[in-house]
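Reopening: structure tokens for the magnesium ion complex, inputs below.
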Amino acid sequence: MAKAKVKTTFFCQNCGTQYGKWQGQCNACKEWNTIAEEVLQKPEKSDWKTPTSPTKRVSKPLQIKDIDVSEEARLNSLDEEFNRVLGGGIVPGSLILLGGEPGIGKSTLLLQISLKLPYKTLYVSGEESQKQIKMRAVRINPENNNCYILTETKTQNIFKQIATLQPDIVIVDSIQTLHSDYIESSSGSISQIKECTTELIKFAKETATPVILIGHITKDGNIAGPKILEHMVDTVLQFEGDRNHVFRILRAHKNRFGSTHELGIYEMQGSGLREVSNPSEILISKKDEELSGNAIAATLEGMRPLMIEVQALVSTAVYGTPQRSATGFNAKRLNMLLAVLEKRAGFRLGAKDVFLNITGGITVDDPAIDLAVVAAILSSNEDVALQNDFCFAAEVGLSGEIRPVQRVGQRILEAEKLGFSTIFVSKYNKISLKNTAIKIQLISKIEDLVDLIV
Ligand code: TYD
Ligand code: MG
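Re-run output (same inputs, fresh job):
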């Protein structure tokens, strides 16, 4: 009998588009030399069960009014930060993808959650041995009888174990190490990732078991593998932070069951990740003496107010071209604010080096931080320290106007709670708070700020 022809196809390794033959440039993402041949071999039907499994449910069209909306109870992970980012817990049958740079703590986070979960958990690792995981678990929390560790990379074997163990939740570290018998190409290739994810999704949806996947990210910060992976799953979480700092931030990039504005904050310790429930108190360094160049911003991350310290250093440029550098803040936005200060407030910053740093290794994209950035720059430029019980919450516009920000009341209350004496906000913000102990200083243009602080 003649040997069956090996079926191959071509995939763009960047975006996952499939082609019948090789070509130099991908039509979809326009990248060059990203199309590679992968061996496909699909006997019958790929399924997470054996082919003799009972017939699947057939979906029928329903009128909107007949659709059952009673929400299925979410599983509580007993980790406040994780629950919050997911929108209130793990939805049964959902597929969650957790991405992040190597060494940031993805495996630690999920192992820690598995050890805490009050449900039967299967932690599948294709990266570490059972001994390695045990060593890590001992550092975190040795007492748990609900968590099972499996070191396996073949999906068919994983499903076999799942069938005997019947776990309530499955965690896979990582999707790039899995491989399925139905596809011949190597683990981590586009077709393998797609196939393994499809099998896991099918399993999750049919048994209502949530599956959490760890995904590697490429050097440009995207989850390795096709963008398609992010479309396939229900929730994409990103674990980020500066490896030199202890803080780690968990964000949702996509969430079919909740908002993507929520943020979880952890601190990396010798015994795993600690949930930080009151981040403001840690992010502000307590200094006795007042130093120039420091200002505190009242920002909001998701629903949570967060007080963040901004530090600026303005000094005369030694070389011809002044340097501008920002850590944790958009460099283009810094240049814009400097131009506004130059044009609207008459500060000669064109020949100065400006360095800006958001402390704690956190990246902030709330525009309300603008006013604190400007205040820190002014303070450093004039070498006058701001009172350390001042804080700021407003956006700065191109004409030097101080613009209102959303949910200013919440920011004011947080500043008051932390003992600040004065908060600077835009005159155009509608403030309904009465009798606050904190002084609310309303300003409308950048010159007002200059008059008040320098
Ligand atoms: P890891 O979870 O292996 O990262 P990832 O899976 O994202 O690649 O964790 C990495 C780092 O965390 C590692 O460099 C050591 C550190 N760590 C601690 O500081 N404390 C701990 O209790 C643990 C388990 C790890
Ligand atoms: Mg890992």
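Residues 74-277 form a domain with the Rossmann fold fold (CATH 3.40.50.300). Residues 329 and 363 are 6 Å apart (CA to CA). Marking as resolved unless the reporter disagrees.
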